[in-house]
Amino acid sequence: MKKTIISIMFGMMLSLPIFGTAQNNNSNKKSDIKTKSISYKIGDQNFKGYLAWKDDGEKTKPGILVVHEWWGFNEYIRMRTDMLAELGYVAMAVDMYGDGKVYDTAMDAQNAAGYIFSHPDLLKERMEKGYEILTSEKTVDQKHIGAIGYCFGGTVVLNAAAMGLPLETVVSFHGGLNGFKASPAMKNTKVLICNGAADMFVTQADIENFKSEMQKYNVTYEFKNYEAATHAFTNKYSTEAGKKFNMPIAYNEAADKASWQDMILFFNKYFPAK
Q1: Rounded to 5 degrees, what angle do the CA atoms 234, 191, 161 make?
Q2: Who has greater pLDDT, 22 or 217?
Q3: How far is CA 235 from the centre of its chain?
Q4: Distance of alpha carbon 258 from alpha carbon 84, whole angstroms
Q5: Which has more pLDDT, 109 or 113?
Q6: pLDDT of residue 243
Q7: Does residue 131 sit in helix, strand or coil?
Q8: What is the number of alpha carbons within 13 Å of residue 140 lying toward its C-beta?
Q9: pLDDT at 30
Q10: Beta-carbon neighbour count of residue 158 at 10 Å?
Q11: Considering only CA atoms, which of 60, 33, 30, 31 is closest in space to residue 273?
Q12: Distance between alpha carbon 75 and the CA centroid of its chain, in Å?
């Protein structure tokens, strides 16, 4: 598993940082969305979580873990967490680095992501802790937990499922697929991949391998390819960042909206909100 994770990390390394406040489809929280910050520890290290849910009188709702890009625990991932709450889920943004770190340079972010992928025990431990915290919330239906992730986070949630975290659904938005290995632990997990058809970091061989791995273990999955969408297509800052850093990434409004809608349809089929 360690070699698998290391081999797929490079596909997400060029998701550029969020400088300033992220803006996207539904960036303004509705009045009935409640949020809270969470502080927790794993060993001697401090971590931060962010929880969002709709205060509509329902006793329990399905829970979703949300994993950030390699830049860390930033405003963009909290915004996506709020958007999931608006759909009727209890969503928790997971801190994969500790102390809510957000990195401003590519080298620092690459080192942080690389450390996680080269230490799969940490990846598993940190996802398990997020799962434990989310399922301890009285508003969460412990029997129905899913996860979504962006770029680095997309690869994290796929690997967490392969490692045996009991996730009912997993959605990866422009995550890396190179060398991915599924496992029998995924037999009850439904997987959605939202991939940019023009993403230079996900090859046709990667896609074929992923599909083969899903079929090998009879994992139910859907693979969506969005025409003309590059890496990091869901983030409005990507176009500016791509020009600034000479990277082949750009925001694609059509793909952003289509992928979110595809996730909603996927959830309606396999993981409906109450």
Answers
A1: 105
A2: 217
A3: 13
A4: 15
A5: 113
A6: 83
A7: helix
A8: 21
A9: 60
A10: 30
A11: 60
A12: 14
Average pLDDT, the chain: 89
Q: 201 is written with which tokens?
A: 């970091």
What are the structure tokens assigned to 35, written together? Answer: 């949020």
Of 44, 107, 109, nearest to 72 (Cα)?
109
Average pLDDT over residues 49-76: 93
| Digit-coded pLDDT (tens) for 205-231 | 999 999 999 999 999 999 999 999 999
pTM value?
0.91
Which residue carries 């972010």 as its tokens? 109
The pLDDT of residue 29: 56
* Domains detected in the chain: 2-20+43-270 (3.40.50.1820)
* Number of Cα atoms under 13 Å in the Cβ half of residue 108: 9
Paired tokens of 93? 């943004």
Tokens of 109: 């972010």
CB 131 within 8 A of CB 140: no
**How far does Cα 203 stand from its chain's mean position?**
20
Pairing, β 90-94 against β 221-226 = unpaired
Show the DSSP H helices in the chain as ranges: 2-8, 75-86, 106-118, 120-136, 152-162, 204-216, 238-245, 253-270
Residue with tokens 């074929």: 208
| Number of neighbouring beta carbons within 10 Å of residue 58 | 14
What DSSP state is assigned to residue 72?
Answer: B
Inform me whether the pLDDT recorded for 192 exceeds 90. Answer: yes
The span from the CA of 93 to the CA of 9, in Å, is 20
pLDDT reported for residue 22: 35
- Answer for the pair 68, 75: CB distance below 8 angstroms, yes or no: no
pLDDT at 77 over 90: yes
